[in-house]
Amino acid sequence: MRVPKKERQRLLQETIEHNPFIKDEELSKQFSVSIQTIRLDRMELKIPEVRERIKHVASEHLDEVKSLALSEVIGDMIDLKLDDSAISVLDIEKEHVFSRNEIARGHVLFAQANSLAVALIDDELALTTKAEIRFSRQVHLGERVVAKARVEKLRRDGRTDVTVESFVGEECVFNGEFTIYRRGEEEQA
Amino acid sequence: MRVPKKERQRLLQETIEHNPFIKDEELSKQFSVSIQTIRLDRMELKIPEVRERIKHVASEHLDEVKSLALSEVIGDMIDLKLDDSAISVLDIEKEHVFSRNEIARGHVLFAQANSLAVALIDDELALTTKAEIRFSRQVHLGERVVAKARVEKLRRDGRTDVTVESFVGEECVFNGEFTIYRRGEEEQA
DNA sequence: AAAGAACTTAATACCTGGTACTAATAGCAG
DNA sequence: CTGCTATTAGTACCAGGTATTAAGTTCTTT
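^ inputs. structure came back:
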């Protein structure tokens, strides 16, 4: 029931990490020590009180809401010439990778490329109808992917061919041909 | 500066909604009334105290973390025979669609299909190397997409061909051929 | 103008989950 | 036994409230 100090502090750290809502009193029961001991432990480990922990979790939440709204286009658009070419940048973070090997999921790279291809189209409605894509190299956590899109052909039937190539540094990691359907304002349903 | 009760309560509601972290004291300054008035207002409007509000925001956050972790596979897997076939279901919600026309983004359907194809592979490492996809019908907010994946060919070189077809009701809305690279445990880098 | 209702402010006791500090005690090594 | 670490106890104080009672202040309505 009762473990030595070092071990207890390790467990305390873990416990709080995975349940930031837990109060000192409950912790003291869990480790069979006094509430003061828990407080000394928190001090040594620089773990703030429960209200501060909760506040922190909550404010992270607000940040995320903002960044989700930004993800209309996945990645940051840094250049856009409508019906011509566009470039976006995406930093690969935890939520983009498989946890077991930290390699970016295919649909993340696809999403960046697809969003860019759609954003490139200067019309009211733009939807992907077809794509042919290749993943030529694994992309790892922390790497920065630069996607470059270029309009290849504006067809008469309202379809546009766009090619996208994505790079990490000099290396091409992904490329694809997209066919985008478009429709102007006047023809809306 | 000073507004009538009804108006003040409306503004109070809004203010707290978009900044749940605000304390009664600050609110009382903002509306030029006493702190007690703010508290009466909160009671009438059944708005809890600041700590409870923060707790609520934070716990929503934890829910999201869980559901993000679940999104290893996008959509719910309802059937899986490794190296053979699999089925997943995805309900199209707000975050999946373009806000202007409520049509699902292409990369959402791709993500469902791609995740399913990867999950199908019975190996340590599985990555998409190539895909050819077609979007045959628009998918709208609220619709339920059922994706069916089937292994077509297990090649000797460690690549596997998988086809995925996605349906809304009887209608095929998406289909694609994926080539998945795989590697067993013994060959890991 | 007087009465009454609705609204606002004040004052006080109490609560939770702490901080900050001081002091006492337990357990063990040299 | 001395000295040291670890633990426990106790007290004063704080923020941000709840809950309650009481006392104004408006505004309206007759």
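The first strand of chain A starts at residue 76 and ends at 81. The beta strands of chain A are 76-81, 85-91, 125-135, 144-154, 159-168, 171-183.
thumbs up if we can close this ticket
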